[in-house]
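Reopening closed ticket. The problem is back. First fold of the pair:
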Amino acid sequence: QVQLQESGPGLVKPSQTLSLTCTVSGGSITGNYYYYNWIRQPPGKGLEWMGVINYSGYTYSRPSLKSRTSISRDTSKNQFTLQLSSVTPEDTAVYYCTRGDSDYEYDYWGQGTQVTVSS
């Protein structure tokens, strides 16, 4: 059974860097051609795909967020991380990590973690 679990601070101050980690269990993040994504949902809005890191370590971020986004992984811990710099209150959202394929069809989701940007 594959499980994904997000972790990180629930409160971040404006202009700081938001850092979240997704721990994957039940399967290696380097195997089986899977893609691991970060997706967020601001309050009252729809889901927004932020970026991906795949089984080989290839990363790609949403163009509108690319200058502020860094996605990396620690294969020894079977984790991948999101860093979002220079946050503003508009970055307040529930952040999810997911596993999917190259067509962005997701089969597993984390439970989501609320991140609030506020001073």
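Second fold of the pair, where the issue appears:
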Amino acid sequence: QVQLVESGGGLVQPGGSLRLSCAASGIIFSINAMGWYRQAPGKQRELVARITSGGTTTYSDSVKGRFTISRDNAKNTVYLQMLSLKPEDTAVYYCNVLRYFSGRYRSTADWGQGTQVTVSS
């Protein structure tokens, strides 16, 4: 049974930073690609960052240059370092185990409870 536990969210002023963590269990973490998603009120969930088992990273245009995804296979944990936060980054952030099929990475059915990030002065 896959379990994902996100943490590290909070209230931060514009321009501030946060580091999110996602602890995974029930999978062989090191062989899986992982993704960070976010969902703002009234909007669809979107992928903001992805890291493959080999450490290759990909970012959405909206966070490129400000967010950094990383992983620690020894701790079964994926991180999202967020810098220069903007009000539009306000959302619930989730991690997810990704599967590669039909030519691209896709999210899987198991989600954690998410962690709220609020960027406001």
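Update: turned out to be a display glitch only; the data is intact. The chain is about 0% helix and 55% strand. The two ends are 40 Å apart (CA to CA). Please close again.
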